[in-house]
Amino acid sequence: MSYFRKVWAIVRKDLLAEMRSREMISSMGAFSVLVILLFAFAFDLRVAKAGTVAPGALWSVIAFAGILGLGRTLSAEIDRGVFDALLLAPVDRSAIFFGKALGIIIFMLIIEAVILPLFVIFFNLPFLQPTIIFIVLLGTVGYAGVGTLLATMAANTRLREVLLPVLLLPIAIPALLAAVKCTAGALDARPFEEWSNWFGLLVAFDLVMLGTSFLVYDFIVED
Predict the structure, then answer these.
(1) How many angstroms separate the CA atoms of 175 and 169, rounded?
(2) How far, in Å, CA of 111 to CA of 20, rounded?
(3) Residue 42's pLDDT is what?
């Protein structure tokens, strides 16, 4: 079996497991919709121009929904012994990392496919334009990549529900800030040159964090 087929087998396993239980998607979706409604009504009452804070609200929802999904998928597998069985399989550990990360990315993209139209409806802003969708994709890839590594570390501890956000959010701050700035620039139709540095930071974060996670994942699962 080729390397990519092994990665896809892990992704397919996660997708089939979620299709049977629907625990993670339903919890992430319910959380996201609730927070969007709260933001929409709060900004409508207290903020004169909601468009100035909408990019931050979008990435707040994505970040916390991602934490919820990361915590549930890996902790459930470890509790049931599925992850230990996966480590015993004749599969390279990097393939496990890419498979788990790609599964998380798919789940987050499904939720974002719901989030973005809701932001269009409640904030009356063009969140569905191709530039913003591409920015969301870039931010999701980096966030899910480093989140998979840290969720694997936290899942083996007693305080995993608390430890994961404590570890992930400080590390993800550069990517989240860059994503907010890029989203704001695209929403305001500003020239790319004005926010190109933030876009470069977002791309660099994806490359560095994915590369680092790929290199150290083997040591993390061994410990």
Answers:
(1) 10
(2) 17
(3) 77
Closest to 18 measured CA to CA, from 108, 138, 141, 153:
108
Neighbours of 5 (CB within 10 A): 10
What pLDDT, on the 0 to 100 scale, is given for residue 50? Answer: 66
Residue for token pair 């709260």? 38
Residues 73-120 have pLDDT tens digits of: 777 677 677 777 777 777 787 888 888 899 899 999 999 999 999 988
Check whether 136 has a pLDDT greater than 90. Answer: yes
The answer to whether residues 178 and 138 touch, using CB atoms and an 8 Å cutoff, is no
For 29, 87, 132, 162, the CA distances from 139, given in Å and listed in that order, are: 19, 28, 10, 23
DSSP state of 2: -
Helices 23-46, 3-21: inter-axial angle, 10-degree rounding? 70
Residue 115's CB: how many other CB atoms inside 10 A? 23
**Residue in the block written with tokens 């890029």:** 182
Is residue 24 exposed (0-12), middle (13-18) or buried (19+ Cβ within 10 Å)?
buried
Select from 78, 87, 143 the least CA-distant residue to 111. Answer: 143
Q: pLDDT value at position 141?
A: 93
DSSP letter (8 states) at residue 223: -
Provide the pLDDT confidence category of residue 21 given band limits of 50, 70 and 90. Answer: confident
